[in-house]
């Protein structure tokens, strides 16, 4: 019923074709995602954005569907990392990408509900591809570290070039992170290593460079009938801790102990 009321009000504003506030209305909504499936959550966000052109809308949410990177200047993250530090609010009201419209467009499109999880994470493990995304949480759990319990989100950027977009955003919103990428020694992608390193905020993040690449250190050999992520899962789902490659253990330990 409340959802319906919002939709009617938004339609009324649209038909009125006005940009002048009708009154001093402030909509303050706690967890608008409650009782709504994903499609309705997306629709509710559209309705609230339409209302916000006229009135002020403030929402408190635990849903990744209510994160819209095209409106990142209106996004605030609330954290309490320690009793002594207390509750902190972080908001970015400046341009993240300066005049780079292409990078801004990519950021808006690459932040889907799964990647939006970084705004709710205590730490983020940022990787290049799906293989690392499959293996590292699996290995961590075998080592006694449950990412869900620790509030760690594993996010794959899709490419080394895209890593920089995520790093810039996490720097601005003060989200702790560990970046894991291949060294790509002798390849064109190697030039990205220095660019990534220069972006790292040492008070928040760190980098683990894997040489020569992640597939090699885990001994991945893909057959014609299997994808790399699936073969990686098959290889590590029943692996003993003592058989896990030492370099992989080092990456997990670095993540778990980051800023402790």
Describe the structure.
- The chain is α/β, with parallel strands linked by helices.
- The chain is 39% helix and 15% strand.
- The protein has 10 helices and 8 strands.
- The protein has helices at residues 2-16, 38-52, 101-110, 130-142, 147-150, 160-172, 192-199, 214-217, 228-236, 246-256; strands at 26-30, 56-60, 76-79, 88-91, 123-127, 152-156, 177-182, 205-210.
- The strands form 3 sheets. It has a 4-stranded parallel sheet with strand order 6-5-7-8, with helices on both faces. A two-stranded parallel ribbon has the order 1-2.
- Strand 1, helix 2 (38-52) and strand 2 form a beta-alpha-beta unit.
- Helix 1 packs across helix 2 (38-52), helix 4 packs parallel to helix 9 (228-236) and helix 4 packs across helix 10 (246-256).
- The longest helix has 15 residues, at 2-16.
- The chain is elongated and about 65 Å long.
Mean pLDDT over the residues: 90
Helical content (DSSP H or I, runs of 4+): 25-40%
Main structural class: alpha/beta
Q: Strand-residue fraction?
A: 15-25%
Discrete helix count: 10
Reading the helices and strands in chain order gives: HEHEEEHEHHEHEHEHHH
Q: What integer value in Å does the Rg equal?
A: 21 Å
Spans with pLDDT under 50 lasting ≥5 residues? none
Strands ordered across the widest β-sheet = 6-5-7-8
Largest sheet: 4 strands, parallel
Number of strands: 8
General form: elongated
Distance separating the two termini: 46 Å
């Amino acid at each position: 019923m409340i959802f319906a009321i919002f939709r009617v009000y938004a339609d009324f504003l649209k038909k009125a074709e006005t940009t002048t506030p009708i009154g001093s209305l402030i909509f303050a909504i706690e967890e608008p995602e409650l009782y709504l499936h994903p499609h309705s959550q997306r629709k509710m966000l559209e309705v609230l954005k339409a209302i916000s052109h006229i009135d002020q809308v403030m929402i408190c949410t635990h849903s990744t569907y209510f994160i819209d990177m095209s409106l990142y200047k209106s996004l605030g993250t609330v954290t309490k990392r320690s009793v002594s530090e207390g509750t902190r609010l972080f908001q970015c009201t400046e341009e993240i990408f300066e005049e780079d419209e292409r990078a801004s467009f990519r950021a808006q499109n690459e932040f889907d509900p799964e990647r939006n999880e970084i705004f709710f994470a205590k730490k983020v493990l940022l990787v290049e591809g799906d293989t690392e995304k499959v293996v590292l949480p699996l290995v961590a759990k075998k080592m006694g570290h449950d990412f869900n319990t620790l509030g760690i989100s594993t996010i794959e950027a899709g490419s080394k070039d895209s890593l920089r977009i995520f790093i810039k955003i996490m720097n601005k919103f003060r989200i702790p992170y560990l970046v894991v990428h291949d060294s790509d020694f002798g390849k064109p992608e190697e030039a990205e290593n220095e660019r990534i390193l220069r972006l790292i905020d040492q008070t928040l993040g760190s980098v683990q460079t894997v040489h020569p690449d992640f597939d090699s250190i885990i001994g991945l050999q893909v057959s014609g009938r299997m994808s790399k992520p699936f073969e990686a899962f098959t290889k590590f789902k029943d692996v003993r801790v003592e058989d896990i490659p030492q370099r992989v253990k080092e990456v997990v330990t670095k993540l778990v102990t980051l800023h402790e």
